[in-house]
Write a structure and sequence with these properties.
globular, twelve-stranded mixed beta sheet, two-stranded antiparallel ribbon, 550 residues, alpha/beta, Rossmann fold
Length: 550
């Protein structure tokens, strides 16, 4: 339970970030402004408030216009949604428009910026010919360009505040997906987590997990009775996958301070919801890592948010772009958990909006829960494409005025087939309409503008520096050092006194052979023992130095 969850104001366990002052029950940081090179001001000049201060009555907002205005009811916005359409048909613009409107009514937003062009949400749009043309086409007057409060995040810490989690928080199921492990290797990874829990070993970053894998591999025989078989082959595969992930920069995803997802839930002093933008252009280079990381964020929100029941507007809206990646080659067990999270998270006041090309990319149990739907054009170049278009059209409530499947292939850029939930929670008849033009800037921020937003953020100091506290790697290293015997100087064997010549007797031939075998075996055993001890010490030393690199 989050303290003060009704207004989403919460007290931090750490000191307030630099620049924060206390005003009542909410923390507000000082006003900052940046005049951009282009002469446009960004939206971060307003103070950020940890809470929702908008009035209780929330008015519907217009999304598109056709024969009449198509409006979204904020009370129905947490019943999830879908933005679908072929590449280049305007899905990102629709996402931008929805994010602006949610922010305007005081709803925080999370979205991933895959193409790098959504940072412009922080700046006013200015005089844009395309916006002016669309406004004139729809008969809209009085559109005021506007920037919105934005916080930038980046899993790699380059274009935003670092987004980290710990190995333990990620868990074996999601981590196995990132590492691309098979079922047997996933079972072994789960055993590693269980052993770490039983022995009180914290798994915070990659070097902790690598050390844990090495420990379990070395002690597999001792652990087998209690935990089952830990095959060297599986340990080797896990280690190789961890090394590959580290080489790709994946080690930056794990560590402390870990992200507190409740930091997404903020409004500015004007009551506008914070738009949290995750820079995902680099993260998308590994699609499976991208999808799994966003799934982890969604599961964290599900875990942290309290039950809210029916709300007048969402507590948070989460846009999942390229959503088809979430279900590509997904194990059945994981897919079931995704469906469960999507079904239950609605009661916590969180709306999830999936963005993908074809709605049929999503499993039926997920698609059936997406109440608000915006379909851009789909292309039908092959018989398979035509079948997909017909299937996509079948997911919308038909309008007797036109053939949905035929219109879906004729839509212009920015034109949509849209069906939103009414006040009873029923999908409306699909309408053909044009999406309203956004108010923010289409062009991305220049580096100086982005840096200004980051410097003004209250999280700059909180997440910038990595904390490396004692965890599994350090504790296992101490154990290994304690188990390794201290080296002792070798002493020459005591000289053997020769018997007098007359008393010496030649030993029977068989006895000499037996004694030679015994001495040879003893020497071989001693050499093997010394070699094993030295080898283990060397291996631990090498792994320790390698794992110690960040």
């Amino acid at each position: 339970m989050v303290p003060g969850h009704a207004a989403f104001r919460y007290a931090r366990t750490c000191p307030d970030p630099a620049g924060f002052t206390e005003t009542g029950s909410a923390s507000v940081f000082g006003i900052a402004a940046l005049s951009c090179l282009c002469g446009q001001s960004l939206s971060f000049q307003t103070g950020m408030v940890l809470g929702n201060i908008m009035p209780d009555t929330v008015q519907p907002f217009t999304v598109a216009k056709g024969a009449h205005d198509v409006t979204m009811l904020p009370a129905m916005a947490n019943r999830h949604g879908l933005i679908a359409g072929a590449t280049g048909t305007g899905k990102t613009t629709t996402l931008r428009l929805l994010a602006e409107n949610f922010s305007a009514i005081g709803v925080p937003v999370f979205l991933a910026d895959i193409k790098g062009d959504l940072s412009g949400l922080a700046a006013a749009g200015g005089d844009n010919p395309k916006v002016n043309e669309r406004a004139q086409q729809l008969g809209i007057t009085g559109i005021q360009p506007q920037g919105y409060p934005v916080t930038f995040w980046d899993a790699y810490g380059a274009a935003g505040h670092p987004v980290r989690t710990t190995i333990s928080d990620m868990g074996p199921l999601l981590l196995a997906r990132i590492l691309d492990l098979n079922d047997i290797q996933t079972d072994v990874l789960t055993i590693l987590f269980k052993i770490a829990d039983d022995q009180g070993l914290l798994l915070l970053d990659l070097k902790d997990l690598r050390a844990m894998a090495q420990y379990c591999g070395d002690h597999a025989k001792d652990l087998k009775t209690r935990y089952g078989n830990i095959s060297p082959a599986s340990i080797g595969s896990i280690q190789r996958s961890l090394l590959a992930l580290e080489q790709q920069g994946g080690d930056r995803l794990f560590g402390e301070p870990a992200l507190d997802v409740m930091d997404f839930v903020r409004t500015d002093s004007a009551g506008r919801g914070m738009i949290n933008i995750l820079a995902a252009d680099r993260l998308m280079q590994s699609p499976k890592t991208y999808a799994t990381f966003l799934l982890w964020l969604l599961s964290e929100l599900f875990e942290k948010f309290p039950e809210a029941g029916d709300v007048d507007k969402p507590k948070l809206v989460f846009f999942f772009d390229e959503a088809h990646l979430l279900f590509a080659d997904t194990p059945k067990m994981l897919e079931e958990k995704i469906v469960q999270v999507v079904r239950l998270i609605r009661s916590k006041g969180i709306g999830v909006y999936f963005v993908t090309q074809n709605p049929l990319d999503l499993p039926d149990p997920v698609l059936g829960q997406l109440g608000n739907r915006v379909h851009h054009a789909l292309r039908a170049f092959t018989p398979k494409d035509a079948k997909n278009v017909k299937g996509a059209a079948g997911t919308l409530r038909p309008n007797p005025s036109f053939d949905t499947a035929a219109v879906m292939t004729e839509l212009q850029i920015g034109e949509v087939l849209i069906s939103l939930l009414d006040e009873k929670g029923s999908p409306s008849v699909v309408e053909r309409a044009f999406v309203y033009p956004p108010r923010s800037r289409f062009a991305p921020l220049v580096p100086m503008e982005r840096d200004g937003v980051l410097r003004s953020s209250p999280f700059q100091a909180r997440y910038a520096n990595i904390i490396d506290r004692e965890s599994a790697y350090e504790l296992l290293k101490k154990r290994a050092d304690a188990e390794t015997p201290a080296a002792t100087p070798l002493t020459p064997p005591a000289p053997v006194q020769k018997a007098p010549a007359e008393t010496r007797r030649p030993a029977p031939r068989s006895s000499q052979k037996d004694m030679g075998d015994v001495l040879g075996s003893a020497a071989t055993s001693a050499a093997r023992s010394v070699g094993t001890q030295l080898g283990r010490a060397l291996i631990r030393g090498v792994l320790g130095s390698l794992a110690g690199k960040r």
